[in-house]
Design goal:
By secondary structure, this protein is mainly β. The chain contains 2 helices and 8 strands, in the order αββββββαββ.
Length: 153
């Protein structure tokens, strides 16, 4: 049968090779790997890193080569294996980089920015999680897609 490709399983390399699934030298299996959509008929298991300074997902090819995703859904070339991969959504693979801790309830997540960041209740608060703002202020969530409300009849 088909062997499921679990990129986070460090033992899978030998298993899937025995099952006849070809792996590529750029693929890494283990805790810091995820499936990246590709143009080769199956996802590629790539080691990744969440770069907090750049607010980007980085694909680790080897110790000397790292590719940085410019934006969600970007296509990146892997010329050494004649393939491309699709950059994942930053919020999915690096959720701590998008308004961590839901701005501690002391601000709102500003999704209008290319890299959504917390807008804190205290305009002078420049902490990532609004920890220097007062709790319970009247900051409103400016998410362009508001959560559905439930009105019992």
């Amino acid at each position: 049968g088909d062997k499921e490709l679990d990129c986070e399983d460090p033992e899978i390399n030998a298993t899937i090779n025995a099952a006849g699934v070809d792996t590529f030298e750029v693929e890494t299996f283990g805790a810091n790997s995820k499936c990246f959509n590709s143009n080769i008929g199956r996802p590629l298991c790539m080691k990744y890193h969440c770069n907090a300074e750049q607010n980007r997902v980085q694909v680790v090819i080897n110790a000397n080569r790292v590719l940085t995703c410019p934006y969600d859904g970007a296509t990146m070339n892997l010329p050494w294996i004649s393939a491309t991969i699709e950059c994942p959504k930053l919020a999915t693979v690096c959720p701590d980089l998008i308004c961590p801790g839901n701005c501690s309830g002391r601000g709102y997540c500003d999704y209008n920015q290319s890299n959504p960041r917390c807008k804190c209740c205290d305009p002078n608060d420049d902490t990532v999680m609004c920890t220097n703002s007062p709790p319970g202020c009247n900051a409103t969530n400016r998410d362009p897609t508001p959560a559905p409300s439930f009105n019992p009849s």
